[in-house]
Amino acid sequence: MAIAFRKVSVLGTGVLGSQIAFQTAFHGFDVTAYDIDDAAIDAARKRFGVLAETYQQEVDGADAGNTAATVDGITLTTELATAAEADLIIEAVPEVLSIKRDLYTELGSLAPERTVFATNSSTLLPSDIAEYTGRADRFLALHFANRVWKYNTAEVMGTQETDPAVFAAVVEFASNIGMVPIELHKEKAGYVLNSLLVPFLNSGIALAAGGYADPPAVDETWRIATGAPMGPFQILDVVGLTTPYNILRNGGDNEQQLADWLKTNYIDKGKLGAATGEGFYRYTD
Ligand code: NAD
């Protein structure tokens, strides 16, 4: 029998978890969102309120009525056993291997056998976690991009142990909540998107840090010559400079030099990207 999901739980209600829960509920699924304590649940309520307004402005068909119904329809809980009663559980807790492994160990004993687990991890491979789930055949990665309602890719990546029927059901689910599912045939750190994006952004930084061309000239070249709407520095301003800086700092000598350049010229001057009003460009709103 084909696997179908109706009840969906999201673990972790931070930046991505709140968006995944909201998007899933907005598309009519029965959603429970779990976080560790009352303070995190209060923060989740605020995030859902902000998302309701954002959807009204940015999502076709969203209005005050259906976004309010979406918020009301999400059950918030600090009880993992409550969240475990689901057909599909999407995990979006901090990117710390020990936190994820501990959570899956507990979850594996609480959730019904049928329940499928999906991790939204950006940098870990599902095989780093699979054995802790107690159900490697019903576990895979389902990776969303920040601002899920707009940048709506959902990369689906299993391990060698993932049941193909589970993979297919998660692909269908992604499509049912308005995502464009991107299927990976085997595990790859960075999935498709970051395998392309990280080297691209680093090449842009290397051109500017090496004194070859200024950021606006690099961006202009890319835009005009390829028709793309944004060059690497415009993208970096949207992402924020801190995460790319941390990724570079963990690399070899060449990457370290690029990290130092970012730090001296931008991060130390408070130019962290569009969210702070200035990065490579200045933003007035
Ligand atoms: P975040 O720090 O904003 O949120 C994490 C949430 O998890 C918090 O609400 C925290 O209270 C909660 N949490 C902490 N420990 C927990 C536990 N044991 N059980 C349940 N909840 C717990 O993090 P985020 O940016 O939303 O990232 C979450 C996951 O999503 C990470 O794996 C990250 O790699 C991935 N991701 C993030 C982005 C992004 O742009 N932020 C994009 C794609 C994927």
Automatic annotation (TrEMBL):
Where does the record place the 3-hydroxyacyl-CoA dehydrogenase NAD binding domain? 7-186
> Looking at the keywords, is DNA-binding present?
no
Against InterPro entries, the record matches this protein to: 3-OHacyl-CoA_DH, 3-OHacyl-CoA_DH_NAD-bd, 3HC_DH_C, 6-PGluconate_DH-like_C_sf, 6PGD_dom2, Mito_3-hydroxyacyl-CoA_DH, NAD(P)-bd_dom_sf
Citing just one GO molecular function, the answer is: (3S)-3-hydroxyacyl-CoA dehydrogenase (NAD+) activity
Per the UniProt record, which EC number(s) apply here? 1.1.1.35
Q: Which reaction does it catalyse?
A: a (3S)-3-hydroxyacyl-CoA + NAD(+) = a 3-oxoacyl-CoA + NADH + H(+)
Task: Describe the location of the 3-hydroxyacyl-CoA dehydrogenase C-terminal domain by residue ranges.
Answer: 190-283
* Swiss-Prot/TrEMBL keywords: Fatty acid metabolism, Lipid metabolism, NAD, Oxidoreductase
Pathway stated in the Swiss-Prot or TrEMBL entry = Lipid metabolism; butanoate metabolism; Lipid metabolism; fatty acid beta-oxidation
Provide the top EC class. Answer: oxidoreductase
Protein name in the entry: 3-hydroxyacyl-CoA dehydrogenase
Q: Which organism is it from?
A: Nocardia halotolerans
